[in-house]
Amino acid sequence: MTLLQPIPQNQAREIRSSLKADCTQCFGLCCTALNLIASNDFAINKPAGIPCPNLQKDYRCRIHSELREKGFKGCTVFDCLGAGQMIAQTTFGRNSWQNQPENAEKMFKAFPVMEQLFEMIAFTAEALSYKSNPVLQQELTKQLDLLQRLTKLSADELLNLDLIGYRHPVKELLVKASREIRRRAVPVNGKRKLEQPGVDWMGKNLKGKDLRGTNLRGAYLIAADLAKSDLRAVDFIGADLRDANLCGADLSTSLFLTQMQINSAKGNQQTQLPVHLDRPFHWKD
């Protein structure tokens, strides 16, 4: 079997940066396929597969400019990385659930599957955008190629995927990549405790702290004060950043940080973000 050549770092960065949601190319899938539960994030209960009452015929949101004011904060946080337009434009060949209602259920179920594939692609490409040992680069490239091919499957094939089986090897590779990248980022004489997976720092005052290279996978950082903190090379996979204060923080090289995590946090113009993430419109100085 011919081995794939490791993807160059600049190409990997381009792949990661290209994963952006384009709602104009979607059929309002996040507004239909997902289950909403009335809470601080959503003003209503909405079962999966039922269109949100704010969704219009043209798949645009009737209250898009007032979502937060109307109690739909969660809608401004959500990001599918482009999975929605992939389902709409490629998997279903631009045939919407309105025009072909017989495909609606299948489309709505395929959307979250594609979303998970896109997330794995994003993390794998991001890992490849950093320098690492050749063996790890080869393994990451192989996984990226596989994941990209999976996104081109038919709807029926997507629904039959063993996502847990695909996630396991990706998780193992990302752990290895994270460890290697973080070690390069931390000063040799550093004495901080770098392994903090799943730590409960809800509401904790971490203002101005040097947290470079810390493993915060799955950490609870709800409402934590991380203002002006150095968060470079911090592994944020699965971390809960809801209402965390990131004003003035340096996340320029934070690892595996998603747009949804950033959207759920608080920040300002001084917050430094990775190049592949956008500054949320609701962040204000």
UniProtKB/TrEMBL annotation:
<protein>
    <submittedName>
        <fullName>Pentapeptide repeats (8 copies)</fullName>
    </submittedName>
</protein>
<dbReference type="Pfam" id="PF00805">
    <property type="entry name" value="Pentapeptide"/>
</dbReference>
<dbReference type="InterPro" id="IPR001646">
    <property type="entry name" value="5peptide_repeat"/>
</dbReference>
